[in-house]
Amino acid sequence: MTSAKMPEQCNTMIEVREGVDQVDRELVALLVRRFGYMDAAARIKAERGAVRDEARKAQVLDNVAREAEAAGLDGQRIRAVWNELVEQSIAHEFDRWDGMRA
């Protein structure tokens, strides 16, 4: 498989779609790593109530909004995407926490 063109090099929708598909594959690989950290958190946290940490969630969302804005993206839009990612990460961690202690 060849590497997709950078966005500014795309001249056709086929090229755009190839680029999007490549980025999606890269994002899935990063999500595998991120969810691996959720597995580690589930293993490390002694209490189930520690899985949901609203202060940490707020910190993550603030961090990503700031990073997005610094990169020229809409911080609120990226915050909304990350909110869903964090909620799914928490759900995953609860599942793992419960599974490790069943």
From TrEMBL:
GO molecular function terms noted in the UniProt entry: carbon-oxygen lyase activity; chorismate mutase activity
UniProt domain Chorismate mutase: residue ranges: 7-97
EC number, as in UniProt: 5.4.99.5
Ligand binding (substrate): 17, 34, 45, 93
Record-linked Pfam families: CM_2 (PF01817)
InterPro entries referenced in this protein's UniProt entry, alphabetically: Chorismate_II_sf (IPR036263), Chorismate_mutase-related (IPR051331), CM_dom_sf (IPR036979), CM_II_prokaryot (IPR002701), Isochorismate_pyruvate-lyase (IPR008241)
Domain of life: Bacteria
Listed GO biological process terms: chorismate metabolic process; salicylic acid biosynthetic process
Classification via SUPFAM superfamilies: Chorismate mutase II
Keywords recorded for this protein, A-Z: Isomerase, Lyase, Pyruvate
UniProt-recorded name of the protein: chorismate mutase
Source species of the chain: Sphingopyxis panaciterrulae
